[in-house]
Amino acid sequence: MTAPIVIALYTAWACRCLLAVVFAVSVLSKVRSATAFAEFRTAASVLSGSTGRRAAAAAIAVVGAEIAVVVGPAPWVFAVALVLLVAFTVALHRNGRSAAPVACRCFGSAEAATGNLPLLRNAVLLSAAAAGLGCSLAAPSRPPVADALVLAAGAVVVATGLVRLEHVVGRLTARI
Question: Do 79 and 69 touch, CB atoms closer than 8 A?
């Protein structure tokens, strides 16, 4: 394989692992209990402007699409992630500008209702999804197992930082 193909292959795998971990945490945090899902459904209702059955259907569709990102085949996982992340980013941006912003419940817990950190996280994830899509089309295979495990471990570290971004920034700024 040529160097550009190898780079594309490893980039696609790293991006896939990153998105899989972030979306897996998101799904698990929403479906861990009936209460957690109800809180997410309520937040999704406010963020999307839908009510009743539409809000419930939207919440279920979001969780289903997030599961698809975790287990689906490339390059489709990247396309689904892009659509979800664009929708989430638009909803978060509108929410931040509203008179009564609500917590997004992106990862189940009551996160900051507004601010730039969720938008920053989404920008990083959008970049990963776009890069992964392009690279998976250029190099549609997998790296050797040992290399894949190293990439997956790195993706877990980055995903942990992204999932806990508000907490990490809060800790860092509290010490300054």
Answer: no
Q: What is the pLDDT of residue 113?
A: 52
DSSP 138-152: H--S---HHHHHHHH
Q: Band the pLDDT of 7: cuts 50, 70, 90.
A: very high
Residue 74 near residue 132, CB atoms below 8 Å: yes
How far is the C-alpha of 50 from the C-alpha of 59, rounded, in Å? 10
Asked if residue 140 lies in contact with residue 74, where contact means CB atoms within 8 angstroms, the answer is yes
Residues 6+ positions from 88 with CB-CB distance below 8 Å: 104, 106, 122
- The 3-state DSSP class for residue 123 equals helix
57-76 in b/e form (b: 16+ CB < 10 A) is ebbeebbebbbbbbebebbe
pTM reported for the whole predicted model? 0.90
The domain of 168 spans: 3-174
Q: Is residue 58 a contact partner of residue 91, using CB atoms and an 8 Å limit?
A: no
